Amino acid sequence: MSDYVIETEDLCLYYKRKPALDRLNLRLPRGGIHAFVGANGAGKSSLFRVLLGFEPASSGSARVLGHDCARLTPALRSRIGFVNEEHTLPAWMRVRELEGMQRRLYPRWNGARYDEVLCHFNVLPGQRVGQLSRGERAGLNLALALAQGPELLILDEPTLGLDVVAKRAFLEAMLQATVDDDATIVYCSHQMDEIERVADNLVILEHGRLRTMNGPDDFCGRIRLWVAEFPFKMPAEVRGLPGVLQLQHIEGLTHIVVFDQDDGIEARLKLLGARTVQSMPLGLDRAVNAFLSRGHAGERLARAA
After folding, report:
1. Distance, CA of 131 to CA of 115 (rounded, Å)
2. What is the full per-residue pLDDT of the chain (305 aa) written as tens digits?
3. Which of 100, 147, 244, 265 has the most neighbouring CB atoms within 10 Å?
4. pTM (2 decimals)?
5. Looking at the domain covering 4-218, what would its CATH class be?
6. C-alpha span between 221 and 291 (Å, rounded)
7. What is the spatial distance between Cα 22 and Cα 35, in angstroms, rounded to a whole number?
8. Could you state, in order of their start, the residue ranges of all structural domains in the chain?
9. Distance of alpha carbon 196 from its chain centroid, rounded?
10. Is-same-fold flag (4-218; 222-293)?
């Protein structure tokens, strides 16, 4: 058995010559929750389509659970669960009919797990799927996916549009699956508060390539905010300091977000004329935003009204 649930090597996927995945090299270890983050068009959903065998790669290779994604058998597919943001389910079926169909399809079906998850979402067996709210449909989708006993569960923006109660129930059920079922979860979301709560590993994609992969706390530790006060105009040399991701001018102070730099940057700022320099940590939301927006528009200015 491979130590990795997902492995890609120089994986490329093109849409009319435009790369959605650009020589992506990724090895994702078994266990825990791996959160995928990136701007729209970073390649997250494209990667999931290749991994699930929905779309062939243009070149390179992709393996899931140790097997070529282009040759997934029904037995292998039964070991992979998938929940998408639309929570697409047959609207005309009743919940009990859908559960019965899934039970017959998956030999490792866990009825107790299905009931345990579904009870958090107030879904009744006699309801038609088309009558369910978005949150109820999300809960049903997750219950069906977990009950099949997957080794790998792929979730593509599963909590998008859910209210606070439904979102909490969804995340708690997902977390419990990693404890009770030893499932590996790959989780795509733009909600940094969710990722801070649940993720063991943070994977950042950009333009179809892997940019960085480590724990959320470790990632935040690599990004720091320095606030400097210059007596006059900020020297142009500040823009050329190593690791600068963002510059902002706020109420007469220069805010400098840097990546992978030690405390030596304080001395450099003082040599450039800063009267005071202060360091502050950043939360995950601000850290990811700074990392992904680096260099997009040169110096970023934010002036207080």
Report:
1. 19
2. 678 999 999 999 999 889 999 999 999 999 999 999 998 889 999 999 999 999 999 999 999 999 999 999 999 999 999 988 877 889 999 999 999 999 998 988 999 889 988 888 889 999 999 999 988 998 899 899 989 989 999 998 888 878 888 888 888 888 887 777 788 999 998 889 889 889 999 999 999 999 999 999 999 999 999 999 999 888 999 999 999 999 999 988 999 999 999 889 999 999 999 999 999 889 999 999 999 987 543 444 333 33
3. 147
4. 0.88
5. alpha beta
6. 13
7. 20
8. 4-218, 222-293
9. 11
10. no
Closest to 42 (Cα-Cα) out of 24, 63, 64: 24
CATH 1.10.10 fits 222-293, yes or no: no
Residue 264 identity: G
Identity of the residue numbered 17 = R
Residue 87 zone, left/alpha/beta (φ > 0; ψ -120 to 50; rest): left
Residue 247 has a CB neighbour count (10 Å cut-off) of 18
Chain position carrying tokens 């606070």: 164
Q: Which of these, 86, 145, 135, 155, lies nearest to 114 by C-alpha position?
A: 145
